[in-house]
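S.,

As promised, the adenosine-5'-triphosphate run. Input:
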Amino acid sequence: MLGAMQDWDLLVTKVIDHAAREAPNREIVTHWADGSETRTDWAGIRRDAMKMAQALEALGIKKGDRVASLAMNHARHLVSWYGVAGMGGVLHTINPRLFEDQLEYIANHAEDRVLIYDAAFQPIVDKMRSKWTSIEHYICYDPPEGSDALGFEEWIAPQDGDYQWAAIDERDPCMLCYTSGTTGNPKGVLYEHRSTVLHAIAAIQPAAFCFDASSVMLPVVPMFHAASWGLPFAGAMAGIKFVFSAVNEPAVLCDLMERENVTDSAGVPTVWLATFQYCDANDRPLPKLRAATIGGSAAPKFMIRRLMEAGIRVQHAWGMTETSPLGTVGGPTFDWDQLTLDQKVDKAAMQGRPVFGVELRTVDLEDRTKVLPRDGEASGALQIRGPWVIRRYFKADEDALTPDGWFDTGDVAILHPDGTMQITDRTKDVIKSGGEWISSVELENAAAGHPAIAEAAAIGMFHPKWDERPVLFCIRKEGQQVTGEELIDFLKDHVAKWWLPDAVEFVDDIPHTATGKISKKDLRDRFADYQLPE
Amino acid sequence: MLGAMQDWDLLVTKVIDHAAREAPNREIVTHWADGSETRTDWAGIRRDAMKMAQALEALGIKKGDRVASLAMNHARHLVSWYGVAGMGGVLHTINPRLFEDQLEYIANHAEDRVLIYDAAFQPIVDKMRSKWTSIEHYICYDPPEGSDALGFEEWIAPQDGDYQWAAIDERDPCMLCYTSGTTGNPKGVLYEHRSTVLHAIAAIQPAAFCFDASSVMLPVVPMFHAASWGLPFAGAMAGIKFVFSAVNEPAVLCDLMERENVTDSAGVPTVWLATFQYCDANDRPLPKLRAATIGGSAAPKFMIRRLMEAGIRVQHAWGMTETSPLGTVGGPTFDWDQLTLDQKVDKAAMQGRPVFGVELRTVDLEDRTKVLPRDGEASGALQIRGPWVIRRYFKADEDALTPDGWFDTGDVAILHPDGTMQITDRTKDVIKSGGEWISSVELENAAAGHPAIAEAAAIGMFHPKWDERPVLFCIRKEGQQVTGEELIDFLKDHVAKWWLPDAVEFVDDIPHTATGKISKKDLRDRFADYQLPE
Ligand SMILES: Nc1ncnc2c1ncn2[C@@H]1O[C@H](COP(=O)(O)OP(=O)(O)OP(=O)(O)O)[C@@H](O)[C@H]1O
Ligand SMILES: Nc1ncnc2c1ncn2[C@@H]1O[C@H](COP(=O)(O)OP(=O)(O)OP(=O)(O)O)[C@@H](O)[C@H]1O
Ligand SMILES: [Mg+2]
Ligand SMILES: [Mg+2]
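Predicted complex:
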């Protein structure tokens, strides 16, 4: 050998070791479902994770076994992330908002051996227990007084915490997340130690979450949604303070943000919308954050503008469960200070730029072998490559990649010359009219810009001549009036003429998935017999 | 297989690919030795690196072969970093300020096959040529009009740039740097693709260089000094603008910083000192930087204070050639905003905190098996572990690690409970008096705080009763007066009584190494016959 650098595997255990060593007393605050609050710190998280690892081994859990959680955001859930990974297990974070058949499907598909759940989800556990065939042990994170469930703290208490993390290879799995089920049944993505650690190092850079020791993050994005966007790992790496809330009421969140000097928060657009509504109704200013990350679905412009006007840096992020999830983030561009507010809003309404480790390309929707130019115009199927991007779904027989090694996202996007990526649709939702593509997302965003519209969803309906024509389903804001004609008139200023919907239908609700996204699948089912007006 | 994430090796080629794809037109400016200026961009750097890779292959250079550079900072040097690594070669960046015997030793030890050099170093090449036994090809980065040397641009021009990066494993080497030779002959450190990429991702985080697209960096630290602290890789990853200067005159640097809107710079303390002196003499304000990184030797407090008072964030960094070199950096702590300026200066005078990927410990100087507490008091031998830390020196027969896998830095340090590391000395320079240790660095820093002292070096001299006693060698500032007694009086307020030097000797110069550090080895040699006063 000529010479060499050290062997040092990229392991999740090293992340928690680092946090406990370098930021031992940086706080982890939890607001629990019952309104109580507890405080621990990185040293405490690591100590409890070691005890939990011992407790799992005592149950006979082995390397590679799946341990499930059905829980909101709190410190004990965080302990489980490191405790399960640290003994070589795989934490499967189940989304409690999934439908019953999905809940049944994924726990059995994952072959979970242990389930640790919040008392709030006891009804789900009671209902599903007989259908879950592999779960041997049920443990409750926060058993109410008098409950006969085994409590998490009670369970790990007998362990002495004198534990050596299991011998793990950096390509071993540490976590299992299923996709949101927007386009079909949720699919399992098995994160590895290496992919998780690389994702976390990338996530703390200024162009992404921009974490340093002074950051105080309240993640509203749940720990069961794409690993809470990797925040619990990135935050440990940078030694930040976390504020968790097991309830997502805006009043609680705003109080917590104020009281704990929260600097950063992250959530899907509906979370930010709920914050706006609460603050308006209660005459409260928006929380004083440094940065707000919005992702999971497209962030509408009015939302971006309002946050920016409040002095908050907006990070519009795009990602998928399959990409750990960080794909692109809209941090400031090199010329940010020279842009007007309007220009900033326009830029931030796109999905941002890839950090190192993410490679993007778009290919023709019809001819997938044809790579499209990054010209800010051509829109095509978005494909991605990188060390934290999926190769093969959990238990699948085949890799989920193109013959030349790219993962097809199922999204339709435009790549701009400056690296900015703009999602225009999902391939399944794009509306094909007369051989041309109409972006359902752009139509919806334009409609949401009307002051009387609360939410809008565009889907393509069969048309004998044009193949498909767009129909817009809208919810009016409470107390507001607008007709379909008025809305179409309004849209004329914002989209091409041939994009204008053939009809606008006002509805009382629009179906959503378990992660709060519009479910076009359900909308299409609901309106299966819909007839376009002549 | 249960499921998996993608295979995606951490390669230096991916770094330049990323920069050229995502920030193709972000500028790379060079101020050349002849005063001319050129501009290229990341797309240009990659294009030229591909041509250079082809040109090297045309010379018969093979994977693993060493290609040397003897050059200052400029865009063609940067091209070489990626061109050599991209064809599987190893770039050996030679320090032109090394002494002749060192120059002879390292080029032959490295078995360099090609040397690419600046015209400014033609005299070195002419003198050494006959002693360098392995170099087959000499190429000049900037041949003056009429020179018969092969010019770099001329050499790569015939290539078409249609190149596929070589097939490289992430553990393959990409770069060879020798240490500064402060304590003995320079030792070769062979950086790998993986170690280099991980170091770069870590380096862009807010707690380290804090790079994003808006950063404009003028690295004064030379590209031959510990890979210019990894900046050329970190900067590419974040798509920053670089401003290089092949000359290090403060007037040129200050002009460039102003003209090119430089936000960041980095250099050893003497570089910052020269900037102060130039600005004072010319009644110019300090450059308006966001951040100044100081490393390579301890940054004195007056320097830190002055930069902070000018509104510049000070990043006092510690590292070694053996650690790629990032070990610790003094970015803001979590409570930074609550500190007074004095407290900030005191904190920043220590060497900062480790980023994720760096593990530190201190062990007893006499009993190396005894790990010391992180109590802010115990000082011991500093040891380090991590993916960008050396395992084995180039061509060494044995690993350079302790039996339990740590690299001993040769530095003496104190670890504080909040993670801050404080260098107190080198193990070879520490002064042992009556069984207790005196920190030569602290003595020097205290002396440098006297307004009449320009530079100070403390070394231990033999003492029949105490083993060693400190002697302080000092240079007075021009036109300033101070006696040894007055200085010792001054020191009484700053160090323990038994640390006070037995003698102060005023000298006209203090010997320095090739990277501008005080060479205590040479000082000890020069004063080998020194007698302590009775
Ligand atoms: N900023 C964003 N703008 C627009 N769409 C986004 C954004 N962020 C995420 N998305 C959408 O969310 C998808 C990823 O979501 P997730 O992994 O939670 O599951 P899903 O795709 O909704 O469900 P499933 O894959 O099971 O159908 C992306 O493919 C994209 O369609
Ligand atoms: N911020 C700092 N404060 C104090 N000392 C520092 C700092 N940064 C670096 N150093 C010193 O520089 C050393 C690393 O320097 P480098 O790798 O350039 O070679 P060297 O140690 O000077 O030379 P050699 O190893 O050949 O004797 C560290 O071990 C430490 O002693
Ligand atoms: Mg999906
Ligand atoms: Mg050294």
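Chain A has 15 helices and 26 strands. Chain A has a mean pLDDT of 96.

- D.
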